Amino acid sequence: QVQLVESGGGLVQAGGSMRLSCAASGRTFSTYAMGWFRQAPGKEREFVASVNWTDASTYFADSVKRRFAISRDYAKNMVWLQAYNLKPEDTAVYYCALAGTPSGGFDTWGQGTQVTVAS
Length: 119
Prior knowledge:
119 residues; seven-stranded mixed sheet; mainly beta; 0% helix
């Protein structure tokens, strides 16, 4: 079993920045990738960004490209999402997620952390 715990959410003004952290514990040795998803009120959960656990390659949703960055610490089993130039439409609950295999998808989730961007 793997447990994910997010931290770093809160209220930020539009144009500001925020850094979310996710700590993984438990059986993390088979991690393939970690990522961030978000869910705004009344909307479905959507992909934000991910990082490959071994080669650190990254992927971003078009809506956050050039504004968000994702990084990981392989030894500490942590992943961060750095968000810049935040917009009100970035308001959502942000979830950390882990994929154990390339084909299995993201199947382990954190409890989520609220990010609110005030205009």
